[in-house]
Amino acid sequence: MPTSLGRASTDAASRYAKQLASHFGRKIPTEETPEGGHRLTFQQTDVLLQPATDHLLIRVVAPDASALTAVQDVVGSHLERFGRRNELTVTWERP
């Protein structure tokens, strides 16, 4: 299954992860992980938000490349909009 990794440098990773989960939780299933992150489920696409001290790691696993790109764009654009004041950007790579 196609996978991509996003990274956003920030010292407020936990806050942004919680904000994204809360925002999307109105429309899709979300859950908090034991490690303090959040899992979002967009139909058949899983998003794992893993906060660290100096960044937020975003792992997207989708059934196909089209779904991967779509969810990556939605999650990335929302995160960048939430972090606009701090000039937050998400960089993506496919392992």
Q: Give me the strand/helix succession.
A: EHEEEEHE
In total, how many beta strands?
6
How many distinct helices? 2
Report Rg.
12 Å
Structure description:
The chain is α+β, with helices and mostly antiparallel strands. It contains 2 helices and 6 strands. A 6-stranded antiparallel beta sheet has the order 2-3-4-5-1-6, covered by helices on one side. A hairpin with a 3-residue loop joins strand 4 and strand 5. The mean pLDDT is 95.
Task: Quickly describe the structure.
The protein has 95 residues and is α+β, with helices and mostly antiparallel strands. It has helices at residues 13-24, 65-82; strands spanning 3-9, 30-32, 38-42, 45-51, 55-61, 91-93.
Write the layout of secondary structure elements.
Blueprint: E1 3-9, H1 13-24, E2 30-32, E3 38-42, E4 45-51, E5 55-61, H2 65-82, E6 91-93
Antiparallel strand pairs: 1-5, 1-6, 2-3, 3-4, 4-5
Keywords:
2 helices; 95 residues; alpha+beta; 32% helix
